[in-house]
Amino acid sequence: MAAGNNSTIIHIDMDAFFASVEQLDNPTLRGKPVIVGGRPGGRGVVCAASYEARVFGIHSAMPLKTATRLCPNGIFLPVRFERYAQVTTQIREIFHRYTPIVEPLSGDEAFLDIKGSESLFGSAETIGRQIKKNILDETGLTASVGIAPNKFLAKLASDLKKPNGFVIINPEQVHEILEPLPVGKIWGVGKKAELRLHALGYKTIGQIAKADPNALNMAFGPSAIHLYELAHGIDSRLVTPDRVAKSLSADTTFSEDTENKEVLRDKLLELVEHLGMRLRSRGIRTAVIEVKLRSSDFETRSVSKTLAEPANETLILWKESKILLEKLFGYKLLPARMISLGASRLVRQGEIQRGLFEVQEFKKLGAIDKTMDAIKEKFGSDSIGRGSFLGSDNKNRKKDQNQT
């Protein structure tokens, strides 16, 4: 069915992105269980899994040791952020051919508002199919596309027939499609919120739509209004274009909520290293860093720190960001569904003046980063680690173990 005039929001989600890039670069991996994240049984977590690996129960944020046990014959590969960033740049360039209103959610998914583009390129369905074809022709990768009147419905649509899906939700179809779906399909409802809804007798989105708003408010507080509106297919949030020059960020949304602090620390370290490389590659430093956690039941908290001196050195960013994460652990946000690291108040490296001893120290750290960046670019993100990080982290892990 063609998209109606009101269905102008497109959500595009790359299928098993990191793993698909690995299978693209090495065709011998196609059809095999590919697990991106590191060595089998090693420290760290799964970043992505091919659909062949998902059959074994593998999912992102799962400890590599668990993944190795579930899929001992899986092909474990290091993360190659720089390569994935190259492909992301290609894909976003395709998006901008059709509209300037593009809101990236992460490297592998984005919202597009194509209202105003239809007179140039055709209907929303025509644009969506053309973008999907462009991505396949130019990158060799498949994407799932959802088209709908708003962001929630478009994101839901792209997930209904993955992989390689194409789903349109027109306004007159909204209630018919939403009513039988499980409550976990509502954007923002994680495992914890899902269990609470089940305990209250709500198993489907249709049941929430018919619920007493006051009863939902007693259970979920201010979030109840948003939950109730989404159950009715109402979402007034706009597609907000990326503001590249003012800030940089990196985030991970877990396919399954996690309350494992070790997993969260490991993921934050990956984000720190990734963001540090991005800052250095652009010749900029950040004066402010922010760590954000989103819980399984909608609540989002962030804490930030203004650095003593703008920095892009991984060791400095890690030292400060892990302190911020420990603060967030005090807000009872676990289990968490998303962790984010942001850098703002960006300055060019030449704009900073430092004393002699500071210059020498920053040069030393910068030389280490430069060497490690080169090694990772050539051999992969998992090819080398930072031994100086492990001491304090191991103390935290032992502390967590003693508390459980």
Structural account:
With 404 residues, the chain is of the alpha+beta class. Among the domains are: 17-80, MutS, DNA mismatch repair protein, domain I (3-Layer(aba) Sandwich), CATH 3.40.1170; 179-240, 5' to 3' exonuclease, C-terminal subdomain (DNA polymerase, domain 1, Orthogonal Bundle); 247-379, 2-Layer Sandwich (Dna Ligase, domain 1), CATH 3.30.1490.100. 45% of the residues lie in helices and 20% in strands. The chain has helices at 17-25, 51-54, 64-70, 81-98, 118-121, 124-139, 151-160, 174-178, 191-199, 205-209, 213-220, 223-231, 261-281, 314-328, 356-379, 387-403, and strands at 9-14, 34-36, 48-49, 75-77, 102-106, 109-113, 143-148, 166-168, 247-258, 284-295, 300-311, 336-348. The strands form three sheets. A five-stranded mixed β-sheet has the order 5-6-1-7-8. It has a four-stranded antiparallel β-sheet with strand order 9-12-10-11. A three-stranded mixed β-sheet has the order 3-2-4. α4 runs antiparallel to α6, α11 (213-220) crosses α12 (223-231) and α13 (261-281) runs antiparallel to α14 (314-328). The chain is globular and about 55 Å long. The protein starts with 8 loop residues before the first strand and ends with a helix. Mean pLDDT is 85; it is low at 351-361, 378-384, 387-392 and 394-404.
